[in-house]
Amino acid sequence: MSTTKISQELSRKHPLQRLESPSTGISALIHVVGLASFSYSYKYLFDFPNFISESYGWHFQFLTIIGLTVATTSFIFGLLADLTSSRRLFSVKNTLAATAAPLEVLISILYWTLRFTDPSLVMPDWAPPLTLPADISFHALPSLLLVLDLLLLSPPRTVGLSTLLTSTFLAFAYWFWVELCYSHNGFYPYPLFDALSTPQRVGLFAFSGALMAASAVGLGAVYGWVNGVEGGKRAT
Questions:
Q1: Peptide bond into 199 cis (omega under 30)
Q2: Residues 6+ apart with CB under 8 A from 168
């Protein structure tokens, strides 16, 4: 490969970034598939309204829907960057994905762990059971697609103290939001919250913040294993 072609390739993507992105190829395909999946999840909420649809906070009382919204926003910017080749939009996508990916990994870990341990902890009695495609669309595909975006379509990001602070802030911001909704509705979105005392809920949210930070660190380690590290040899 000529020096000119090498320079052109490096200008389009970070040396450690596995695939070209933004681009109208695989990058756009992953973002289109992701947005189709996320749209299906939102459509499910409107097609099957339930008790929480009329309550204060709507379905945004669920961490799942908050994570889905961040993931959707990230992929919208990703697809726009693919279609316009805008580095600014690509940067916004990367910033959002840096939060969305560990958040969705956290949601998947917590949900499926509790789901297999005791479904009544995450599924209220009044909620009709989710169909399998909807369950996967809500609680598995967002984390899978964001991890693919992170590993294949994104430049490396530094994981440091800011990651821990961001995770802790988000955990306790969600706690504040849940308590605000409870003050209006008189119920929690997840039965697990009802089963815990206030100190136990504080511990749960602190643990969730730490787990999200650990997810970010783990994703950074996997990125280095797959793509290589700065100053080191890129994986082949």
A1: no
A2: 206, 209, 210, 213
Query: 210 lies in which domain range?
Result: 20-227
Residue 208 has pLDDT above 80, yes or no: yes
Is residue 90 within 8 A of residue 71, CB to CB? The reply is no
Residue at 164 is within a domain: yes
Q: Are 90 and 20 in contact (CB under 8 A)?
A: no
Reported pTM? 0.89
* C-alpha torsion angle, residues 116, 121, 127, 132 (rounded to 10): -20
Statement: residue 68 has pLDDT above 50? yes
Q: What is the pLDDT of residues 81-125, one digit of tens each?
A: 999 999 999 999 999 998 999 999 999 999 999 999 999 999 888
In a domain, 234, yes or no: no
Q: Is residue 11 part of a domain?
A: no
Q: Residue 130 carries which DSSP code?
A: P
Is 97 in contact with 151 (CB distance < 8 Å)?
no
Percent of the chain whose pLDDT exceeds 90: 66
